[in-house]
Each structure stands twice: as C-alpha cells, then as structure tokens.
Amino acid sequence: MTLRQLFDPSGIAVVGASATEGKIGYEAMANAARFDGPVYPVNPSATGELFGSRFVSSVTEIDGDVDLALCCVPGPAVPEVLEECGEAGIGAAVIYASGFAEAGEQGEALQTAIVDVADEYDISLLGPNTSGFIVPALDLRCSFASGAEEIPAGNVAVVAQSGGVGLVLAFQARRQGRGVSAEVGLGNRANVGFAEAIEYFDGDEKTDAIVLHVEGTDDGRRLLEACRESDTPVIAYKVGQSDVGDFAESHTGALTGDHELYTAGFAQYGVPTVDATDDLLDAAAALGDSPTPDGPNVGVVTAQAGPGIIITDRIQRAGGRLPQLTEETQERVDEILPGITYADNPVDTGRPMPEFGEVVTAVAEDDRVDVVLVYELFEAAIGFPIEELDGLAERVGKPVLFATEGIEEALADERQALRDVGVPFFETPERAADAAGALARYAQLREDDRVTDGGELQAGTNADEAVTADE
C-alpha cells in the first residue's frame, strides 16, 4: 500500500456527487473541483454536468486516469463502491460516512468488510468517519468542510485523529499566517493510521514538521516507532487526561488508554508533547522553520525586563535551561552597550535601540547557547533588527525565535519582513517561551533516545506499558 495515490493523485472520482447544495456530495465536489487535474462526478441517478464535468454512473466507466475516490455515500453502500474502485484500479479512497467501528457490533462488521475489500485490491482507506484531507500546495481539497479552499500552503503536516480538530488546527494556522503542507483527519483508521501518515509526510519535501492529535490507538508501538524513525520532527497533543473514554470511543473508535503512559511513551521515543492546539502549531513553527538544536540551553535577549522575566520563568518550567553566558560574550555585550541593564542570561537592554541586533548576534554566537529567543515590543522609530536576523540561524546552526507585540497595523510590514527571512515569531511571551521549551525538550529527548540502547524500550517501563496497553 502506498499513500501517493491518496495524497498526490492523477485524478479524482467523487462517488455520490450531488447537484444539491448542502449535501456532502455537492460540497466535496465543489472543493475537489479546484484540483488541477481531472475530477469526475459519479452518480447513477444524475445526468448533465457538475462544476464543468459530466456525470458518469460508475467509476468503472471513467475514461481516464483516477487514483482517488471520494466516497460520499451512506455506510452500507461503501463495500460495493470499493469493489468497483478495485475493479477500476483506483488505489485510494476517502470514506466520509460514519456508522462503522465507533457505532457498535454492526458498525464493526461493516468496517471489517471494507478492510477486506481494501486488502483484496490494495486500496488505501482514509476514514471511515472522517472529514477528509487537504494538500494546499496541490490545490487538493478532498474535504466537504466549508472554508477548506482558504487554507494556505505551509510546511507543517497536521495528522489528527479527529477531522474536526484537524480543521481547527488548519484554520488556526491560516489565521497565524503559517498554513499547512497537509491536513489529514484519520477518523477510524481502517487501514491508514498514524504510522502510515507519519511515514508518508516524513518523505514529503513540502513538510518540515509533523503534528499529531491523538485520542488513542490500538497500535501504540507502531505509532511510536514511526515517530522515532522520522527524520522530520514530530510533536504530539495527546488528549484525555481526564476520563473521556466512552465519548472518545464513540467518536473515532479510540481506546484512549492511560494519558501518563502515552506521554511516557512519546518522551522515550523522542517526541515532545503539548497540551493545547496553539502550543502544537507554535512548536511546529519553531521546529519546522529552524535548525535542530543541539541541546536545551536557551539564550534570551529582551528589550523589556517584565516580559523577559515571564519568558525566563516559563522556559525553565517548559523544560529549557538558561545557561550563564561566557565571559567573552558578556564582555562583548558590554562593549556594544556600556552600562547595559543586565549582561548575563537573559540579556536585558532596557528598550529597543539600534544596537539591539548586535546583542542578539553576540548571544547567538555563544557556544553555551543552543536556542535563541528574542523579545522586543515594537517601536516604530527603531523597528526590528531584520538585517542581523537574516541568515543568523543558519550561520550559527541554532534556532532563533522572535516574540513581539504592538499595534497590528504598525507591525504588519515588520512581521512580513520576519517571515521573509524565515524567523518564527510569536505574539505573547508565554507562547514564545513554550515554543523555545518545545525545542529544548526535543533536543533533550533526542539525545536521551540516542544514549539508551538506540531507543529500544526496556521491559517494565511506563513507556513499554503505554505501547502495549491497547494492543
């Protein structure tokens, strides 16, 4: 089974396409029609055209290449549709319908039936019980969700157990000006689950970070091993710290398991975890847009002491360390700004000034620092040190994060300039500190993973229980 036909198809068939607005068959066709490739509406009861393409009665009658079927039909009709897809050589399908494994014994039997058909014809199944997926760079909008066409391209792949949460993350990424390389709602994970998605997006040149929304899984070990083997950074949001077991199982058939055991498993396999959707996207921005840090040591440069104190406290609580700067760096900072408010870590300049960028450079070049975090309230007369930040992270081989606040209209050009030079930026001290903390945890977890038997779990550990509890 390959996921290329799912996420990079030559053509698409929308089975159950409808000319009635509001129906899934209409909304899915409306979104899919944006694809720069053939899109065929399939419905034996319909005639004429829909979005410029003529209806056909079956996928077996399509005269052209089709890799992907979007199944907009009720659950009981799905096995027959998949049989026809197999006969037509279609290698991937999205199943939107619910009423499968999450809905009791009859639903479980129906899901088993579609998996059997998929196995026979080697079909990759996304879902059932999913809102689909989007790949903005390809204008591939295989979802019935309103607004899917507005999600911009970015470099973070969102892999969510819940299609609803996946869309929440995609819309948040749009609002933050970041976008996604893909947004995938796994649903019931009939035969495409976390591991398969991680493996695919790890090999995707448009993806620099992968974020996971996890309710639970019946193959925890495979999930964690896929995370560990991924060269692309993976960050996870495991929900269910309180008792949501019955609700979660009725949602995507998820077995939530013990939250602490999952967290231990992710930690042992080098995956930082977060507790909010914003944190997930912030961590992905920091990891995806930056060099991989060598360690957890964060150097902070702030133009205001109050936010700097918040950042300093938050970084340490988030898993980072604030090392003392070398004497050479402190002397260098003193030479740049004689009588500076505070020349150690964090460096506090008191307010923005023309030399601010030189101070940031000095801290970034300190051998004791693995991650740099800069905070500067915007002052129009000074602006941001864009020239010094441009290429700095690549030159020193360290992440350089920037946090700021001010009047939105006044900040717009400067924020765009930060985007243009590839510097991740954040709107609050807390979010910036948490992102730096995620970088620190990622570096530390990866180091721990390298020095403990190549990452192999030891029998009897919490992490071992985490990946076997649901198997």
From TrEMBL:
One of its GO terms (molecular function) is ATP binding. Its EC number is 6.2.1.13. Residues 6-100 form the CoA-binding domain. Residues 450-471 are annotated as: Disordered. Keywords: ATP-binding, Ligase, Nucleotide-binding. It catalyses: acetate + ATP + CoA = acetyl-CoA + ADP + phosphate. The keyword Nucleotide-binding applies. It is an enzyme of class 6 (ligase). This is acetate--CoA ligase (ADP-forming).
